[in-house]
Design brief:
Layout: H1 3-18, E1 25-29, H2 35-38, E2 41-47, E3 65-71, E4 74-80, H3 91-94, H4 96-104, E5 108-117, E6 127-135, H5 169-181, E7 187-193, H6 202-211, E8 215-217, H7 221-230, E9 233-243, H8 254-275, H9 279-283
Parallel strand pairs: 1-4, 1-5, 5-9, 6-7, 7-8
Antiparallel strand pairs: 2-3, 3-4, 5-8, 6-9
Helix pairs in contact: 1-4
EC number: 2.4.2.1
Function: The purine nucleoside phosphorylases catalyze the phosphorolytic breakdown of the N-glycosidic bond in the beta-(deoxy)ribonucleoside molecules, with the formation of the corresponding free purine bases and pentose-1-phosphate.
GO molecular function: purine-nucleoside phosphorylase activity
């Protein structure tokens, strides 16, 4: 069975479990950011372990299940947890869920993550929109044969494709407006992805700052690359869970990441609830 066939089988299984629900918007929740899934009405819950070929989350703070239903009246499919390269998964396995979302019918995806803050003015608990990214993982998930059948829009699925607007300007504008309505503002930043699992050294953080990064993490970039290859529009949101190495006074830990995520997850959930009904019309997700 080919990789495409495995993705198609997984998507067909999910469609059978979701019944008449046909979400065009997908949301991926990062470490400690699961509250949005609790806001879904009449949820259909599918553990990753039940989906054919689907990789399993092994990291604390990643529940490892699909939650689909209505978020503020809008149909969505939420991934409550993701998998990472550092867990021992291959690039194809890391991006398998994104491929499945595309074949399921998702046309817009909101990617959230926990990130270290490199910008001097960021503070733990702050939400930051991704305007761009820097791939320092040492690999690209599209290495190998190109599979144009993954395209979900015309002119997508190309071997070489444009990444000038990896993160949708229209969706960023929409998110900024929604945040103001919730009583806070959203800045934009540049996310740099490393393979992990070790946190960065102070020297690496200084180098990343020189490259123009304001956030650092261990996810999101592979998913974004694959989403854009398929023709899926992307909104990226980082939760600054800690100051990056050398910028704070305490050692970095995953416990700190998870705890800060839990403190801000309700704010993120409120933002996503406000955004969900507005997203489809903004970027033509109905197509």
């Amino acid at each position: 069975m080919t990789y495409y066939d495995q993705v198609a089988e997984a998507a067909a299984f999910l469609k059978s479990r979701l019944g008449s629900l046909a979400p065009k918007v997908g949301i991926v929740l990062g470490s400690g950011l699961g509250a949005a899934a609790q806001a879904v009405a009449n949820p259909v819950i599918v553990p990753y372990a039940e989906i054919p070929h689907f990789p399993q989350s092994t990291v604390e703070g990643h529940s490892g299940r699909i939650v689909a239903g209505a978020l503020n009246g809008s149909p969505v499919v939420i991934m409550q947890g993701r998998v990472h390269y550092y867990e021992g998964y291959s690039p194809l396995e890391v991006t398998f869920p994104m491929r499945v979302l595309g074949l399921l019918g998702v046309r817009v995806v909101v990617l959230t993550n926990a990130a270290g803050g490199i910008h001097a003015e960021y503070h733990p608990g702050q939400l930051v929109l991704l305007a761009d990214h820097i791939n320092q993982m040492g690999w690209n998930p599209l290495n190998g044969p190109n599979e144009p059948r993954f395209a979900v829009r015309p002119a997508a699925g190309l071997r070489f494709f444009d990444m000038t607007e990896a993160y949708s300007k229209a969706l960023r504008a929409l998110a900024k407006k929604a945040a103001l309505e919730e009583g806070f503002s959203l800045e934009e930043g540049v996310y740099l992805a490393t393979p992990g699992p070790s946190f960065e050294t102070p020297a690496e953080i200084r180098a990343f700052r020189a490259l123009g990064a304001t956030l650092v993490g261990m996810s999101t970039v592979p998913e974004t690359i694959v989403a854009r290859h398929m023709g899926i529009e992307v909104l990226g949101i980082s939760c600054v869970t800690n100051l990056a190495a050398g910028l704070g006074s305490t050692p970095l830990s995953h416990e700190e990441v998870s705890e800060t995520g839990r403190q801000v997850e309700n704010r993120l959930a409120a933002l996503l609830k406000r955004l969900a009904p507005r997203i489809p019309a903004t970027v033509g997700a109905e197509s």
